[in-house]
Amino acid sequence: MTNDNRHIYLDYAATTPVDKRVLEKMLPYFTQGFGNPSSIHFYGQQAETALEEARQKVADCLGCQPGELIFTSCGSESDNLALRGIALARKMQNQSDHLLVSPVEHHAVTRTAQQLASQFGFELEYLPVDEFGRVSPEDVASRLRRTTALVSVIHANNEIGTVNPIREIGLVCREAGIPFHTDSVQAAGYLPVSVDDLNVDALSLGAHKFYGPKGVGALYLRRGTPLLPILTGGSQEANRRAGTHNIPYIVGLAEALFLSQTERETRIKHVEPMRDHIIANVLEEIPGSKLTGHPQKRLPNHVSFVFNGVDGNSLLMLLDVEGYACSSGSACKTGDPEPSDVLLALNLPRSLALGSLRITLGMGNTPDEIAAFLNDLPAMVERVRKLG
Ligand SMILES: Cc1ncc(COP(=O)(O)O)c(C=O)c1O
Q: Which tens digit of pLDDT belongs to each residue from 272-312?
């Protein structure tokens, strides 16, 4: 699907190709069903039908009401809207000014929380994590305050693959009456995202991580959760997010999510054995290698290591020359000489954190590709070590 004879794509956590079935559902809405769903006429009605069908499809996947969904332009926007929108609304409502956030969030959450702290008078408290980057529900419980505006804990981490006990953390927040947001941007491709099972009040999605198009996301917001709109203008999304709907992309998001949820078992069966093979092989064959993230409670397509005495960016460049597309930590970090905040939160020494490699698998990968990769990797790690 994604690979040619010279290149092997091993970076599905950065983005995925659009599933052909998803593309087929999207195409008619570029040229025929192109109307603006806010228009009164036939064309508008046609687009509105597509919009509401997509909304229902996403709602069915999440087990929520269609009115509890807000379509956005990406996972980052969903995170921004959840954090800023809920925190500011809670502050206006009852002066809540305490934010409880994990230190292993995507920057879409951390940078927003940091801005709320530096510019809007919130106190930002980071939750502790264990050596695998997991947050414990007990730590959340002991830090909740009457004035906590929002708790945000990532569902499955993009850099280290660790899956958090969202359901249990959600229960703690629910009992205290504090809104709880989770970033499921990486999780939704492989894990169930039933919002009632997860006990969440807000949940972020981004379509391009599960074979949908880039540039479209969604935020689930439990009915009754306060929200200050961040994008103001038209009355779209029940006055919670202005802007003409991107119908083809929203249709694509809905279909991609539906396929991820209905084909979950098949997808896991495809990637998980390759994931386990890479982990076992690298730990055995490459001295000075260490798995990052939880050994079991991790995404089924996610592999991440740190290598002693290796510059992660040099390794990525060498891998690229040899035809392997991987990543170190999050894609946005590539070319950034600073170690990732997520890896530092695991208490890894800076030198080790700089030697990270992330391999994320998808439906386009084959065992033969993995065999070729595993055959070539040890020599490349050695070459980069010698450079350093
Ligand atoms: C966990 C997580 N949250 C949020 C995002 C941002 O999503 P988007 O690229 O759709 O803005 C990403 C993308 O890397 C992610 O992995």
A: 999 999 999 999 999 999 999 999 999 999 999 999 999 99
Q: Which amino acid is at 372?
A: A
**Are both 12 and 86 inside the same structural domain?**
no
The neighbour count for residue 155, using CB atoms within 10 Å, is 21
State whether residue 149 is helix, strand or coil: strand
Question: Does 206 sit in the ligand 1 pocket, CB within 6 Å?
Answer: yes
**Residue 2 predicted with pLDDT over 60:** no
280 lies in the same domain as 211? no
Q: Residue 361 C-alpha to ligand 1 middle, in angstroms?
A: 17
Is any ligand 1 atom within 6 A of the Cβ of residue 75?
yes
Same domain for 100 and 186: yes
Q: Do 30 and 66 fall into the same domain?
A: yes
Is 173 among the residues known to form the active site?
A: no
Verify that 289 and 316 share a domain, yes or no.
yes
Query: Contact at 8 Å (CB) between 333 and 343?
Result: no
Full domain range(s) for residue 247: 20-262
Inter-helix orientation angle 86-94/107-120, to 10°? 30
Domain end marker among 245, 262, 279: 262
Domain CATH for 81: 3.40.640.10
Amino acid at 100: L
Q: Is the CB of 275 under 6 A from ligand 1?
A: no
Ligand 1 center to residue 75 CA distance, Å?
Answer: 5
Residue 3 lies in a domain: no
| Contact status, residue 274 vs residue 364, Cβ threshold 8 Å | no
CATH of the domain at 309: 3.90.1150.10
Q: In this structure, are residues 190 and 158 in contact, taking their beta carbons and an 8 Å threshold?
A: no
Count Cα atoms within 13 angstroms, Cβ side, for 53: 13
Q: Which of 77, 109, 158 to mutate to test the pocket of ligand 1 (most atoms within 8 A of CB)?
A: 158
Portion of the chain with pLDDT greater than 70, in percent = 97
Q: Is 106 in the pocket of ligand 1 (CB under 6 A)?
A: yes
